[in-house]
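A note from the maintainers: we've had questions about how concatenated examples are separated. There is no special marker in the raw files; a new sequence line simply starts the next protein. For clarity in this README we add a label.
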Amino acid sequence: MFDLTGKNVLITGSSRGIGKAIAKQMLLHGANVVISSRKQENCEQVAAELNQLPNRKNAKAVSIPCNISRKEELEQLVEQTRKAFGQIDVLVCNAAINPHFGPMSTIPDSAFDKILSSNIKSNHWLCQMVLPEMAERREGVVIIISSIAGLTGNPVLGTYGISKAADMALTRNIAVEYGGRNIRANTIAPGLIKTDFSQTLWANDMILNEALRHTPLARIGEPDEIAGAAVFLASDAGKYITGQTLVIDGGAIIV
């Protein structure tokens, strides 16, 4: 049920952290994967690393760098993915930014605009580019990596949380609009995961201890623990799940 052999998966922000973990697990379950982030060198390094995995069957990783905030680069990303693999079966929108750590009352307009553009508009653009081919084939999966910041209030991640709540709404609307053409769209909302992106949080002892105090599993998560859920949602194991937000946070939001 979890076999992805023959599927082609495009993953943004996949040169490190959660995106890289998703790419690795997708590949190990048989899918071809596109490694994409802003820096070409990082993408090439990860693609080469994944292509050396001993248990990857015949699956292949390719490197296609892209700055998600630029529509023309997203168009090139989609075009080059099609040239490499023929079609896109699974789209994983993972790339995101958060240039402001602090209360919403102090965020500059420039940072606010950057967050909404990169975390919402780029995902909307990418879905617009990929969904028509999925609809024509009457098969496809969209997964957007959100955050529990989109489900709870936060004194230092407010605008980031707004963008992540919007990502959840985006997948719900895709699920409604495209469900009749056998396309599924879901969101994964991680809690605190040990990545470079979230280092500001887990590397601060005061913030980390406060987070752990409100986490029933009493630890932070690892990227592979998000990747497993992505494989589930992309595979036949999750083929009756759509429009949902899967929270993976060690229980943090239930406390």
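[label: protein 2]
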Amino acid sequence: MKTQSTLDELENKIIACLFCPRLVEWREQTAHGKRRAYRDQKYWGKPVPGFGDPNARLLVVGLAPGAHGSNRTGRMFTGDASGDFLFPALHRARFANQPDARHSDDGLILQDIFITAVCRCVPPDNKPSREEISLCLPYLVQEMKLLPNLKGIVALGSIAFFETLRLLGKKPTEIIFKHGAFYQWENENMWLLASYHPSRQNTQTGRLTVAMFDKIWQDAIKHLEQVV
């Protein structure tokens, strides 16, 4: 209960964040502009905190909220094409109780997994600056500290992968990003598994297939069970 309470406090802190003027302006502009398909919906238009099981052993790290996905719904990977690919995979792997994630009150429950991102505000062209990433990363560090059972991390995309490496104190120049790559260091329990991001650009071109993505989660389960 103490962990959940502290996560709730962090969530409130993230939602109130105004550190990056460019991102504040863009997220609010996008929320007011709306996409035609969602013109009758109220957009979240604020920073998006992580969510999931406070007792999770597995952390999933993405890049940033989608303009008309998380920036609209207020929940990571919810309401856009990336989530439409991610949550069915999590459901098949039994990390999620349902394959759909449409809005924040849709009944989705995550088991043994917590989903977050490098940046909490939607960036223009999906490209946060180096400074914006640096300002936002402390929130990810705090989330990791508040997940007492954390054993492994799945990084979705190269930016999430290399930023997570930095947080783990590793030198990115010595490690290669490729789909399915697994890293665990001597005398450390924490491990890192790399995956292509489930963006439409990757899934519709066949760069990331359902079978490839399913294997990521099966590998994650295998590594979780191997960690003592």
